[in-house]
Amino acid sequence: MTVRVGFLGAGLIATFHSKMLKGSGEDVARAGVFDPDPDRAAAFAAASGGFACATEDEVLDSCDAVYVCTWTSEHPRLVSAAVQRGLPVFCEKPLAVDLPAAEALTAEVVASGVVNQCGLVLRRSPAFNLAKALREDPAAGPTMAVVFRDDQYIPTQGQYASTWRADRTKAGAGTLIEHSIHDVDMLEHVIGPVAEVSARSANHHGHAGIEDVMTASLSFADGALGTLTSVWHDVLSRPSLRRVEIFCGSRWIAIEDDWFGPVTWQDPGGPAVTVAGEELVAACTERGIPMPNPDGDFVRAVRDGTPAHPDVTVALRAHRIVDAAYRSAAAGGVPQPV
Ligand SMILES: NC(=O)c1ccc[n+]([C@@H]2O[C@H](COP(=O)([O-])OP(=O)(O)OC[C@H]3O[C@@H](n4cnc5c(N)ncnc54)[C@H](O)[C@@H]3O)[C@@H](O)[C@H]2O)c1
Predict the structure, then answer these.
(1) 72 CB within 6 A, ligand 1
(2) Binning pLDDT at 50, 70 and 90, where does residue 290 land?
(3) Cβ burial, residue 328 (10 Å; 0-12/13-18/19+)
(4) What's the CA-to-centroid distance between 72 and ligand 1, angstroms?
């Protein structure tokens, strides 16, 4: 069965998904695309092979599954419109601008039973999944600590050039919810459940309600401790970069760069081992770590009527940790349970 895919929003991430769909090899046909910026919709349609629509409803009428790739504040309304038609939906992260809205969206999607997936794409990262396997290896011993640093230039400029990311009503807040919700999700995916958060935020750029630094101290349920530092700076020549170090009793693991490493690890008495690129992929294959195309997976789930992953419940969990961090920062760093 050919799956007809529609798009609401024709910006940066919609284009990314469109390219991933093209590369997935799945039987996909392009349906309608709507964006309040008609030039964007037209350019997207021309590049992807779909057609520009004058309304959101036209898109929903034209497809078997829809991607919601608008700025964040529009996600709940558009996901709801899809769900009311029984349409499978891919919703970008964050689900919504705050926790109550993310909870409401999740409840509606889950109750409807539609196939759904969220944009927490690092769940498919070979680098993070290899680090997870190395940490879970019994030879590593207990996980003691994790240091997670994520920095990018403030995405109101450069390739993102999005004014909405400086508007709290559209983005919810700053670097933690808009960008580092990925990191919070990776911390739970790789290390385990977070039990408590203490956080501080700062705002150097002066956009009301948009923090550009967030530091969080995390306690994990299994006793591990961690820190997350998320920064939006102005070094436009620097790409968005993550660096993660995991300290286990008998293994040190480091991840540089989000997808193809390098990943380095070292055990007692042994040399540091580094893999990147094809070697990293081979190390994943050796360990049975799948590396599927997230968009291909979504389309296959739609075609087969099977559950997709990560779904909105995974994103909701990340929202709960983000919310605890914002509550802590507002209370001057007082620890908050998740
Ligand atoms: N998963 C990821 O790694 C990732 C990366 C970037 C962005 N995102 C998320 O994706 C979403 C979009 O980000 P972006 O970088 O593509 O932003 P963008 O500014 O490039 O595109 C957003 C588009 O949505 C359009 N839009 C607004 N309201 C709409 C509506 N009602 N119907 C249709 N279109 C509408 C805007 O006109 C704009 O063209 C955000 O929620 C962002 O957090 C996720």
Answers:
(1) yes
(2) confident
(3) buried
(4) 7
